[in-house]
Every structure is written in structure tokens, then in C-alpha cells.
Amino acid sequence: MSEKAGKVDIGLIGLAVMGENLVLNVESKGYKVAVYNRTTSKVDDFVKGRGAGKKIIGCHDLKEFARALSKPRKAMIMVKAGAAVDEAIEQLLNVFDKDDIIIDGGNSNYQDSIRRCTYVESKGLLYVGAGVSGGEEGALNGPSIMPGGSPAAWAHIKPVFQAIAAKVDQNVPCCDWVGENGAGHFVKMVHNGIEYGDMQLICETYDIMKKILGLSPDEMGDVFAEWNEGELDSYLIEITRDILRYKDSDGSPLVEKILDTAGQKGTGKWTGIIALELGIPLTLIGEAVFSRCLSAVKDERVEASKIFSGPKPSFSGDKKAFINDLRKALYAAKLVSYAQGYLLMREAAKEYKWNLNYGGIALMWRGGCIIRSAFLGKIKEAFDKKADLSNLLLDPFFTRVIEDSSESWRRVIAAAITNGIPVPAFSAALGYFDGYRCERLPANLLQAQRDYFGAHTYERIDKNRGKFFHTNWTGQGGTTSASTYMV
């Protein structure tokens, strides 16, 4: 190691699937990489295997790892989120010096990243929490990277990160600085929440095609292939096309043999929790998370199916016209998912004093990541035109899409409900849109109820905002009102 000491550009800890592929990606861009794994045999296997003949230095302990890195040292941690990250940080603090940079590239909770950034900076070092999206393929060939943390770290890691990131629009990297402390991991969390919504909408579309229209997986694959050539062009539509066409060893569609219980790693749940805390109506993503929870109670659903009967799905209309309605409904609902995600980021930026570049975030999601899609360019254009845009749906382009899709959207949901097909994400998206466009909601009655049973007070439409009233609704209460009015 002595001849290599201090000559390595960046280090990586954790040689699981993502870690290995990121190392190969970094090395392919001309950088030298030092690698370490707690199970040192994995280091040897990797260096002699996929890393053979490459500018990759295997290290068996962290002192050796630290000696190999050029100053300021840059080390990326790719281990399971949670306690393992904290442990790795502590170990690096023991071998790193002032101004060295510790990067967490896992799926960490943004609140952990806020805490870790403060802690690492208190020790005189710099911290980066970087969301990385794109899975195994993205890690190897170009992911979307969303870094945040200590601003002083960006200049040192920018060349490497932008070199390995996916590229769009004539070589523009899908990576830029997001913001302070936990901003990077927050944006990645919202990305994953939107991913939950996108996937659930596609699954509901598949269910409608299968149960109402009676399409085979191959026929559905052809529909998704056609959609992928238009405004729905995206990674998730593309892989759905491939999945529906894939055959098992006996020649039958593999998708129909997969157990209908879905898992989750927590990022969708985290997105819903912070949305509730910040008071943002993240209804579609919330329903997508709950749909996974419902899928998990498979045995109960099997028993319930024997007890409850429902409509027998049937269709007698024009299939081609209905498929076009489905396309429009899916497009409109997807836009609502992104609009809600952006609302959450805007509110979090206020809460945590982040200066987020919303158009730049859309650009980072254009390539490499799971939710990459053609219309993300339109989101960037929307924020380029109006940086303080309050809701994506108010941008003229998205307004036109929603208006054009509205009738199709309603026909699809009506058909699903009439035929007993659950469409929680489609319905939640339309419910949000109808609520958002409604000048007057029935919350006046709700506020009266709250005042009736809890003296929570209310405002009046014939008085200035900020003046509160309480009514003695029964004639038996007093004049005292609560001081917890929340709007």
C-alpha cells in the first residue's frame, strides 16, 4: 500500500450490489477508488473478480483505507440505513482528519442526515447525505444523485458525482447540489414517494385492463409499449411493458404467477408521515402506501373473498376508446402525484430553511432514476418560467393536460367502481384535484362541529380573516372558547 498512499481519489465502504456497481462506475470515469467492507473476504473477492485489472485498491482495515485517500479524504458509505451508518461514521471519525468528507449514499431518513451533519461538522469534518436512485443498473451506468449536507463539501465531490451521474440534454448531469444538512435525502425520499404513487397507478391500470377489458398480458404489454412512445414515456412504463411480455419456463406469463403481496422499505411511509406533520395533502402517495399494506394481509383477503360478493366485471363498450381514456387518466393522475410531491418539498424548504432548486430537481430526475419520464422536462420549464409556482397544476401546460383528461379520468374511475375494481390511487388523485379546484369546501360545517363540541372557534366569510368567533350552540354552554384553533 505504501506506493499508493494518499493517491486514491475516493473511497467506498460497503460492497453490496449498489456499492460494487458505484465503484465500477467511478473507476470507469478515470478515478482511483479504495474499497473496504466489514467482511474483508468480500474485498478480496471483488478486487480479484469484477475489479480485476482496474484502478481499485482493496483495504482490510480503515486505517489502511484512510492512508490510501488523497486529502481532503472523501469516503462514501453504502451500508444499510440506520445504526450501521452511525457505526461507519464513528469508525471514520477515528481515522479521518479535519475537513475530510463523509458521504452517506444509502436510503437514510433525512432527519438522521440532519443529525449526522450537525454531529460530523462539530468534529471539524464535512458531511454529505446523498440520495442515489436508479438501482443496480443506474449505479453501474449512471444514477440520479441528490447530494445535500455541508456546502463546503460540494466543490470537492462535484467532479466525481457529476462524472458518474446519468446525462440528459446534451450531457447535462442528473446531479447537482440540493441544499443543507438533510435536503438531499429529503428530496430522495420524496422521489421514492412519487415512485410509490406511479407504481400503484400503473398497477391499477393493469388491473382494470385485465378484469374489465379482459386483455391478456401480451395485449397489455402492447398497450404499454405504445404508451411508452408518447407523453407517458418513462422507465416504469417501459419495464411494465417488459414484465407483461415475459414468459415463465412453461411459456405462460410470469407476472400471473407472482404472489400479490407487496413489500416496502419505509421511504413511502416516511413521506406520508412528514406530509401529515407539515399539513400537506399527499393523498395519492398515502393511498399507494396503504395499498401495499392491504396487499400484505393476503390470508385475510382470501377469507373475505369467500364471504363478500361484488359486481362481476363486464364491458360492452369500445375497448380502443376506453384504453385511450385509461391513458389520459393515468397521465393526469401521475401529474397529481408529482404536484403533491413538489408541494411537500416546498413546505419542507420553509420548515428547514432549505433553498431548493425545484427546476433543477426535475432535471436530476430526468435520467438514471426510477421515476425518470419525458414530462419532467415540462416540470423544469414550469419552474424556469415561474420560480415561485405554488402548485404544478397551475402551470398552463399542466392545466391543459388536466382539463383535457378530466372526462376520461372520471369515466375510468366510474367504470372501476361500477365493476368492483379497487382504484384507491386514481380516486385519491381525482379527489385531490376536485378539492383543489373547489372554491368552497364543506369545511365550514366541520369547523362548526369542532366549535360545537370543543369550543374551537371559527372565522366568518363576512368578517376579516384572523377574527375568531364562538357560538353557544345549545344555550347551555358558557362563553369560554378553546385557544387551539388550527387552519
Summarize the structure.
By secondary structure, the chain is of the alpha/beta class. 53% of the residues lie in helices and 8% in strands.
Can you put this structure into words, describing what you see?
This protein has 487 residues and is of the alpha/beta class. It has 19 helices and ten strands. It has helices at residues 17-28, 40-48, 62-68, 83-95, 110-122, 135-141, 154-164, 183-211, 217-227, 235-245, 267-278, 283-296, 298-307, 319-352, 358-364, 376-385, 396-418, 424-436, 443-454; strands at 10-13, 33-36, 56-59, 74-77, 101-104, 126-133, 144-149, 167-168, 172-173, 179-180. Strands 3-2-1-4-5-6-7-10 form an eight-stranded mixed β-sheet, sandwiched between helices. The chain is globular. The mean pLDDT is 94.
In terms of topology, how is this protein built?
Blueprint: E1 10-13, H1 17-28, E2 33-36, H2 40-48, E3 56-59, H3 62-68, E4 74-77, H4 83-95, E5 101-104, H5 110-122, E6 126-133, H6 135-141, E7 144-149, H7 154-164, E8 167-168, E9 172-173, E10 179-180, H8 183-211, H9 217-227, H10 235-245, H11 267-278, H12 283-296, H13 298-307, H14 319-352, H15 358-364, H16 376-385, H17 396-418, H18 424-436, H19 443-454
Helix pairs in contact: 1-6, 5-8, 8-11, 8-12, 8-14, 9-10, 11-12, 12-18, 14-17, 14-18, 15-16
